[in-house]
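## Example pair
The file below holds two records. Each record gives the amino-acid sequence first, followed by its structure token line.
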Amino acid sequence: MSKNGKKTQRPTSSADAPEPTYAAPPMSAEKRHALIREADRQTQAIMRLEVYKRIGYSVVAVGALMVYARVWQNAAAWVLVLGIALMVLGALFSAVLYKGIKNGKKNVRHILEAAGVDPDAVRTRKSARAEANTGDDAEKGEADERGGDSDER
């Protein structure tokens, strides 16, 4: 330490210092499975939040329609006030949910990385079904081509 209380860096030779390791320590299969389950639960919660975010967008749209009704259709004055309030509240609600969803997705990515799962390689049931269907369609197409050649005489 120096006289002012701050740590000073000592020069070290790179040959003597061991290289730092950044790999995660090995974990048990039970802990890995628990992390994957937690990531799945958080993903389901994020999906629910996205529904609420869409509802917030709808509230903004309803507010805009109410403002339109007041300005162009000469509706009552309270319609304008309510429309502006709905637009502001819906926008704030949606913005908070947008930020929360964004951070939640980052969190799920970090959990999966900690569990040793590549988040980019994770397949959903829907994508797996789509891949299976395209494989079946390709096989059917090849069979049709072979069958189509034999029918021509």
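Second record, same layout:
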Amino acid sequence: MHVVRIDAAPAYEAPGHHLMEMRRLQGREAGPADTVWLGLSTLAPGGGTTLDGSNVEKIYLVLEGELLLSNGIEEVRLARLDSCRFAPGEARQLRNTGTAPAVVLLVMPLAPATPATPVPAAVAGTP
């Protein structure tokens, strides 16, 4: 078991994020994790991210307030306990257009999934 208290969760910064306080709750510099890392972001009013994609899946869960999320094609407003998944390669943008801070939980893989390499038939023992 690995516990990270919120007051000890390491702060981090990411390009294209503004008016945001971000903390790593599990994984990376917050401690051991095998497949995902967990982050907590507080977005001040007017805060958010640029519209960018990445090669990994991202899952967001709004814990407080409301956020406007976009993939560049559609926008959706999420409220408390609403969640959204962005697929690998899909653009994403988060914006706090309200007057109160918003808090969101982020789950991301530690590394991009790599496609399985087929085993040649001769090696696999098939004719």
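Notes on the second record: The first helix runs from residue 121 to 124. The chain has one helix and nine strands.
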